[in-house]
Design goal:
The protein is of the alpha/beta class and 407 residues long. It has 14 helices and 11 strands. Strands 4-3-5-6-2-1-7-8-11-9-10 form an 11-stranded mixed beta sheet, sandwiched between helices. Strand 1, helix 5 and strand 2 form a beta-alpha-beta unit. Helix 3 crosses helix 9 (200-209) and helix 4 runs parallel beside helix 6. The radius of gyration is 21 Å and the shape is globular. The model is unreliable at 1-35 (pLDDT under 50).
């Protein structure tokens, strides 16, 4: 049984007090963090579908009480699953995520408006790193070519099938645990040909493990006007239309709801030829911060010029490693801050075109700050490079706000 059957009852009883839409159109160039609002900024009473948190907690290895009817008396397989997910999670929290939290708060956020929409192209289902670097974003938009996926009826699976599904979910997270990014070839196997049929269960895990309550969930289709969305029962998995998963979530202790949206889309230039409406939507994105990492250097190629130009046209700040947009595109309109160590691309990407001589020279001749965490392709050596590009007008606003905060 697909996800829609799990949530059927809640969908009937849920009467929304606000308009629920995937639309993020309408730019705002206001640099004042206190004025960066989204439609559900006002505190509201919002109906909550508790089954969503139950599913997220189960997949995230934290709670299984609701599903006890599935288990044998000793619950041994659940205990094994919990250990198998807790152990790597505790390790990456200590070695990576906690360090990212501190770096973001101390180094990046004072330079940017950290409450803006966070736009993350080439993301896979990686809400985890997006959240830890941009915890104050008022909305998250992720885009990749991994299908949206479904969730089986977890309440009615027998123990053998539930165990198999949970193990498959955890196995699909192995590259995040080890390397901090998803490997496309592994996702081809993990999310397309086995029990996990898309990104949906991994998004559940990340939302739960980052302390978010889930209030609503749905599949949506972008209409031909490039602005409005229609809720659909289940995805078609066609790249000729734009479909997304949208969660409405709230961080523990927060009084606002946020949208987390994942688009299944081909954002190459050829992909936009096939689906021009999505490019129209991206050009209308409101002002954002953009995050690009472990992106196979796609933005270096002319075959990805449209997504590159879209980012450069809408972003107030861009945080990326060298797999993102080349350094030369930022020289005129952005200030830059360099971190870590710049090295040649790893052996998987051998093209000499991908090594940026101008960026290498800038690293050699500029004030470069060290990084104490590893996040990207050079995970073996730990010699990661990170660049923060801040639009020059936005930098002046951020400095003013920082000065006022210290008074």
């Amino acid at each position: 049984m697909k996800t829609k059957s799990i949530f059927f009852l809640a969908a009937i009883t849920m009467i929304l007090s606000v308009v629920f839409s995937c639309n993020s159109g309408g730019k705002s160039n206001d640099g004042d963090k206190t004025n960066d609002t989204v439609p559900n900024e006002v505190k509201i009473t919002y109906p909550k579908d508790t089954t969503l948190d139950q599913i997220a907690a189960l997949l995230g290895g934290d709670q299984a009480e609701v599903f006890k009817n599935v288990f044998t008396d000793d619950m041994s397989f659940w205990n094994d699953y919990k250990i198998s997910i807790d152990t790597p999670w505790n390790r990456i929290t200590e070695e990576r995520l906690s360090l990212m939290d501190k770096w973001s708060a101390d180094e990046m956020n004072p330079k940017i408006n950290d409450t803006l929409l966070l736009f993350y192209p080439f993301s896979g289902p990686d809400f985890l790193n997006a959240y830890h670097l941009f915890p104050n974003a008022n909305e998250y938009i992720l885009i990749a070519m991994e299908k949206l996926g479904t969730i089986p009826d977890l309440y009615n699976l027998d123990e053998e099938n539930l165990k198999g599904y949970l193990d498959a979910v955890n196995f699909a997270l192995r590259d995040i645990y080890k390397r901090s990014y998803f490997i496309t070839g592994n996702m081809d196997q993990d999310l397309r040909k086995h029990k996990v049929d898309g990104v949906l269960p991994l998004l559940y895990v990340f939302l739960h493990r980052t302390g978010h309550e889930i209030y609503d969930f749905g599949y949506y289709r972008l209409e031909n006007d490039g602005i409005s969305f229609t809720k659909i029962e289940e995805p078609t998995n066609s790249l000729e239309v734009t479909e997304c998963i949208k969660f409405k979530v709230r961080k523990d202790g927060d009084d606002k709801l946020k949208d987390v949206t994942y688009f299944y889309a081909n954002i190459s230039d050829d992909g936009f030829v096939q689906n021009p409406v999505f490019l129209q939507y991206l050009h209308k994105l409101r002002t954002n911060n953009t995050f690009i990492k472990s992106a196979s250097y796609l933005s270096h190629y002319e075959t990805f010029s449209n997504i590159r130009n879209s980012v450069l046209g809408t972003a107030n700040a861009v945080l990326e490693d060298d797999t993102g947009i080349p350094y030369r595109y930022f020289l005129d309109d952005f200030d830059h801050y360099l971190y870590g160590v710049y090295e040649k691309p790893i052996a998987d990407f051998k093209s000499t075109y991908l090594f940026q001589k101008d960026l290498d020279e800038e690293y050699q001749n500029s004030d470069v700050k060290p990084l104490d965490f590893s996040l990207g392709y050079h995970w073996r050596s730990g010699n990661q490079n990170w660049m923060l590009y801040v639009r020059k007008a936005e930098q002046a606003v951020a400095e003013t706000l920082a000065a006022e905060a210290q008074k």
